[in-house]
Amino acid sequence: MRRSGPVTRRIGSLLVAGVLVASACSGSADDTSSPITAPSTTGANRSTTTTAELAEPKLSSIDLDTVEVADLKSPTAMAARSSTSDLYVTQQSGQVRLIKVTTSTSSSTPPRYTLQTMPVLDLSEEVLSGGERGLLGLAFSSDGRKLYVDFTAKPDGRTMIVEYELGDRTTVDTKSRRVLLEVEQPAANHNGGQLVVGPDGYLYIGLGDGGGQGDPQGNGQDRDALLGSILRIDPEGAPASRSREYGIPAGNPFADGEDGAPEVWLYGVRNPWRFSFDADTGDLWIGDVGQNAWEEIDRLPSTNGFDAGRGANLGWDRVEGSHPFEGDNPPGGVLPAFEYSHDDGCSVIGGYVYRGQVIEELRGVYLFADHCAPGLRGLQLDGGAIVDQRTWPLDADGVYSLGQDNAGEVFVLLKTGPMLKIVEPTASDN
Questions:
Q1: Bridge partners of residue 229, in order along the sequence
Q2: What would you measure as the largest C-alpha separation in the chain, in angstroms?
Q3: In the predicted model, what is the mean pLDDT of residues 273-281?
Q4: Count of H helices and E strands in the chain?
Q5: pLDDT tens digit string along 375-396?
Q6: How far is CA 255 from the centre of its chain?
Q7: Do 238 and 250 meet the contact criterion of CB atoms below 8 Å apart?
Q8: Cβ(359)–Cβ(339) under 8 Å?
Q9: From start to end of 142-250, where are the E strands?
Q10: Exposure string over 143-171, b if 16+ CB within 10 A, otherwise e
Q11: Which of 18, 60, 89, 423 is buried most, with the most CB atoms less than 10 Å from its CB?
Q12: 3-state class (DSSP) for residue 143
């Protein structure tokens, strides 16, 4: 039975041993053998470190806890809004919920989180929910005055990207509704669903390959298809044609439409359920859900803070992770920075590079999870090379998503309802 009031959940110190890029992780007596690996760089377009010596592994010295901050119904995504510490969460059945965050002037007093009773937006009458369908993603414009949502629509299951205005309010103006994009979905799975407003202010949209086994329609390697891609559009830009409600950023790799769809930013993904930009570097991190054998994490470095992943081909369905599937890695294809087999999970949940202040030692560590395996996972990198990895056991199963607030702190959303914040252990936990 869940206790009432704030709940602290202990995350232990289970280490996961594996093969690392350019460095091996030192094991301990408590380590468990795992097939998690960073794949060979053969044939990959990957950024690697140029330093002679890599940083020392540090994850074994970091202990973490979680505190329950809200209890929702099948929360699927979380977003922070600029100029406020409040958090917004989607529920799969179609509601956007607001969590008010009250902070104290005392640095020793943690914030207080209060889930508001009335939804910010209720789309339950038009959302087709269940399985991999539902209200799947949300994001805010850079100024926080507009809300974007991604949901599966009744009756046919198409993906809808819709904009609403909030202005200075905490509830949407439903009359302001503007449909930005509709994408037909040939199957009930691999809908993607992630929405992110990038460091460039444009809207990034994750779309799976259309579902079915093995990408039967070949969308992953079809640059003219919106499915199997991450798109980048400008909701405020001049429409590229009368058939569009958005502009095409000039920097899109196929902006002229000659070599691919103008909206496509990168392609060759199977189901990029969750992806994020590193708030400090602009690097793009993607958790791409695998087929039958391998889950992958892709890291696409930025050279100027705004170009991460431009025109990249992540290889699906030629490869699953770094392994041949329908062929070999295509020329120039980007292999994952990290992968693990289905002996250690079944569905990767992409996360965030921690940039918060609460856990100083965790800064720069990429945190993610797997829907089928309890635990919060972390990767420590040095110049693009993985130098350490770890799994902290979590007192819950079924992670749906991770979220990050404006302060860089990380939250975990569980299928069963709890929303947890990652924190340091308290003295009483030691």
A1: 207, 267
A2: 64
A3: 97
A4: 0, 28
A5: 999 999 998 889 999 999 877 6
A6: 25
A7: no
A8: no
A9: 146-152, 159-165, 173-183, 195-197, 203-207, 229-233
A10: ebebbbbbbbbeeebebbbbbbbbeeeee
A11: 89
A12: coil
**pLDDT, tens only, 223-255:** 999 999 999 999 999 776 667 899 999 999 999
* Residue bearing tokens 């799947």: 136
> Are 211 and 223 a contacting pair, CB within 8 Å?
no
What is the rounded distance in angstroms from the CA atom of residue 205 to the CA atom of residue 284? 13
pLDDT in tens, 61-93: 999 999 999 999 999 999 999 989 999 999 999
Contact present, 132 and 272 (Cβ < 8 Å)? no
**How many CA atoms does the CB half-sphere of 32 hold within 13 Å?**
11
Structure tokens at 186: 């040939």
Position 310 confidence tier, pLDDT thresholds 50, 70, 90: very high
Neighbour-count burial of 330, counting CB atoms closer than 10 A to its CB (0-12 exposed, 13-18 middle, 19+ buried): middle
- CA separation (Å) from 311 to 223, 272, 283, 368, 383? 10, 16, 14, 25, 22
CB 378 within 8 A of CB 390: yes
Q: Beta partners for 300?
A: 284
CA–CA–CA angle 354, 162, 285 (5° rounding): 25
Assess whether pLDDT exceeds 50 at residue 19: no
Question: How large a percentage of the chain has pLDDT more than 90?
Answer: 78
Asked whether residue 50 carries a pLDDT value surpassing 80, the answer given is no
Say how far apart CA 2 and CA 85 lie, in whole Å. 27
**113 with 100: CB under 8 angstroms?**
yes
Q: What is the chain's alpha carbon radius of gyration, rounded to the nearest angstrom?
A: 20
The Cα–Cα gap between 150 and 139 comes to: 9
DSSP bridge partners of 202: none
C-alpha span between 120 and 81 (Å, rounded):
13
What average pLDDT score do residues 302-307 get? 92
Q: How many CA atoms lie within 13 A of 53 on its CB side?
A: 3
Tokens 């041949």, residue located: 324
Contacts of 1 (CB under 8 A, 6+ apart): none
Q: Is the pTM of this model over 0.85?
A: yes
Both tokens of 196, joined, read 């992110």
Strands of 229-233's sheet, edge to edge?
195-197, 203-207, 229-233, 264-267
